[in-house]
Amino acid sequence: MTQPPEPCSVCGGHGVRYDGKVEVGRFGDLVLCSCISDLCRCNGRPPYQFWDDDSQRRWCPCHTARRRLAHLKSLFREAEVPTRFRFKFRGDFQALAPDGTALLVERRVRPVLDYVTALVNDDRDPRRGYLFHGPPGTGKSLLACILLNEVLLRRARAGRFVNLSRYFQKVRATYSQESEHYGRTWQIIEELCNIPYLVLDDFGVERGTEWEKEMLYDLVDARYGEERFTIVTTNQSRQEMGEPEGGRILSRLVEMCYVVDMEGQDYRSYMES
What we know:
The protein has helices at 34-37, 63-78, 106-121, 140-155, 164-173, 185-194, 210-225, 238-241, 247-256, 267-272; strands spanning 16-19, 29-32, 49-51, 57-59, 129-133, 159-163, 197-203, 229-234, 257-261. It is of the alpha/beta class. The longest helix has 16 residues, at 63-78. The protein is globular, with a radius of gyration of 21 Å.
């Protein structure tokens, strides 16, 4: 029995990769992998068809990957990943400083990096997310964005990065007639409840009003019930997150996420010294 060919080691068989070469601006770009572009017979012209030797019009081998590429570029634009972390992937996370100083406790980080690798190599949709907690500057937001970028690239489904403080500001604005978001309260909330992949950054910096607690609980509870892949970052300790007013939110997060203590030095302070 003939064995199916091994998927491309660069793109995993999806036909799209990130090219870090910067030609214009600050970043590289998503491009077709060579395993696809080398087979192209349409020169990249829509609708991605060519005439074969029998004068029959055929779909070019690149047409599916080109449609995926266009879709992925749209998803990355809409993900709202901060500029600092845009197009960061698993190779961009460093647990060591350039001089070899350990910035993070290895036993904490290694399982997470292994999980990133598992995401890349497994086509199944992830059901359990991550709750990264620890001191500022230990790479929580970077690691969250790496995970988000990887699932976007590999799964080609929608994802979003949300700073919770700005999220509450946006929802409050929906009650003001002067806001461009006026009247869109439930549309904004429902979108985040249903989006396949979500990063909730800076959990615990919100003002802690009853309204905010209820809004956050409703969002977490909806994603918990539907088993949506969710990543949460916070500077709070697990004890602080478990205070009476936040206990029911934490209980949901602990069940839907792996809890990772990001113990280590402040990476930003180290690099500035």
